[in-house]
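User: Assemble these into one structure.

Assistant: Restating your components, then the assembled model:
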Amino acid sequence: MNREALRAAVLAALGDVAPEAELDRLEPAAELREVLDLDSIDFLRFVQHLAAATGIEVPESDYAQLATLEGVVAYLAARS
Amino acid sequence: MSEFRMPSLGADMEAGTLVEWRVRPGDAVRRGDIVALVDTDKAVIEVEIWEDGVVDELLVAAGQKVPVGTPLARLRAAGATPPPPAPAAVAAPRPTEKPGAAPRAAEAAAAPPAPPASAQPPVAPAPIAVEAAAAAAATRRVHATPLARRIAESLGVDVAALEGTGPGGAVTRADVERAASPPRAAVASAALAPPAAELRAARARQAMAAAMARSKREIPHYYLTTRIDLAHALAWLAAENARRALADRLLPAALLLRAVALAAREAPEMNGFFVDGTLRPAACVHLGVGVSLRQGGLVAPTLRDADTKNASVVMRELTDLVARTRAGVLRSSELGDATLTVTNLGDQGAESVHGVIYPPQVALVGFGRIAEQPWAHDGFLGVRPVVVATLAADHRASDGHRGSRFLAAVDRLLQTPEKL
């Protein structure tokens, strides 16, 4: 997957978890959990959706690298 | 012969709108079957039936809003002969809102002629107008997902007018939103009429306000607070999650719920109901779990028998409950009979929460955000992940001593996470 496809996959996963979020206005460097009001269950579901879409299972110890949209894309790009 | 009534789907529910029947007269039903969709102002709930039988007669038509306890349908035992309709026996539901296009069951009930009492051929009873209305509706029966229905109502879209693109031609959320988008843009400029979604949120807020005001008026709350060291529990959780498949990962919330459920089993005065001036301890532990909705509001669906399920099962059910609560598709068994409620602010929340008890329950446990805190232990100061656990309890049912023992039990249980 290239970065554009990864970005689309991340946004789709966020859309599944927070259907009412206005994702087209999401700043690349915005704190996802803060801006989208994701609790820990939402975040776990987000990680599960990412795995389903990309095959990459993010370990808990790497969650800190998934703080922003650009962070998630960079993390996935380095592993796909 | 028995009656299926509008269930109470939460302490703050006074009436519900029958959105759709999932059964018709003559259908056999089994305990646990979903027989109707009911809108409580907060969510559309799939309502289950609690006995086996055959649907004899529908007493309330789709679209009607009736108070909790109103008979919705009559059931007969499987194999029993359908009795002749007896107009006097039909309890006329009093709609609290306009009944919409559907004819009122009350009018319908007066209509059927009473057949001779002696002759009881096993033929269908004289159809009443509710049944006729159901049949009429069926000719233009609309398949739509509960979420789509809910969104359609909030956006003022008629699902019957839409072409569904979902499985089997079902109207989906996307169909509804597509249909709604042009008018919604137009509405944006007309600031005078608040959108239906806001009205709905306001109604949900009112219902919650009524229950909480009643709680504060009637229940003499007392509050206890304790700080719990979660270092051991979180270390165990991290190690456990590192070896678990992604789908089976646990969150601290699952451990907190399990600890409360097991502690509740030891503390009957925290787990049950206060009715008619006395405490009625519950034999089981059904935890109400506070789930905040992103658009505002709070729903507390029930995680049943939480004391008999391990942390993995609790985690799975919690994830499912939260997702369906936010999508607005809960079942009736998941609302209404919690024996103790837990509110967990999560890791984005404040440090502690002192809750308001849901009547007729007698206690509510609150957990704040888990955060690193200075912690004195064995004469040394260290840093530990700590959660502030609070208990709001009913002083008519217990006292601070019992409450303290209960919170101490929650703490003790969290120190052996592997047993949760």
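Chain A has a mean pLDDT of 92.
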